[in-house]
Amino acid sequence: MTWKRFAVDRVQVAARGQADPYIHSRIAQSQSFLVRVAGNINQAADSLGDLSCISATGQAIIQYALNCIQVKDIPAAEKALSGWNSLGQPSPMEQVVLFRKDMIFGRALRYQGRFAESLAHLESALKATEQSESLVFDEDRRDLICDFADTLRELKNPASTERLLRAEITWRDSHFGSPSGRSLLELSAEVLFAQEGFEEADMICLDVQVRPDLLKVRKAALAHDNGKDTPRSG
Questions:
Q1: Contact residues for 215 (Cβ-Cβ < 8 A; gap 6+)
Q2: Which distant-in-sequence residues (6+ apart) come within 8 Å of 30 by Cβ?
Q3: Residue 103 CA to its chain's centroid (Å)
Q4: Is 179 helix (H, G, I), strand (E, B) or coil?
Q5: For the chain, percent helix, then strand, then coil, each to nearest 5?
Q6: d(CA 161, CA 93)
Q7: Which residues contact 111 (CB under 8 A, 6 or more apart)?
Q8: From CA 60, how far away is CA 97, in angstroms rounded?
Q9: In the predicted model, what is the mean pLDDT of residues 5-13?
Q10: Residue 145 predicted with pLDDT over 80
């Protein structure tokens, strides 16, 4: 994070005297992101400055909504996201913003228990990743699939959740030639446990537990589930 702060600070110095509001809006968004990651939510919101002046890019709206979600102010996030849309045929940049808007909107609605509405926004975001020929959403897509799976689980649809996760894991493994992301594997194990697919879930848990990037807290949770449910598989 130190080098990211250094880079943003250097860009801010270089931009002094520039009258381009887009440049300054992107600097403000980067500062807001860094401050939010550090846990200073109030300062993160202040970093965005006057939102009405920079909302044309949409990126500031996304950062503001994320700040609101961080402090559980979901209505404010929903209001902010509802207030932005592209003008006419969206440019590639606007397509990215629309994708992230739908993804974050879906997440916010799920937190409110509005699962059907959440699913509609997530489906729109997923459609964007499948139809775009010039944009790559690989990293964002992983988060999207996790949100999608969580929403399907809330709608009591474990079979569809399992199919979604299997398809995504297969796709990522075939395209990148490496194990799928930790979050996808964890979700798959949880879904399999819920459907009493204990043997396969155990194998996934063991795979996840040896991954160096697995958070200790998540390791403990998976170990607990594994130990609790394994006897039932025999």
A1: none
A2: 4, 8, 11
A3: 7
A4: coil
A5: 75, 0, 25
A6: 30
A7: 69, 72, 74
A8: 10
A9: 64
A10: yes
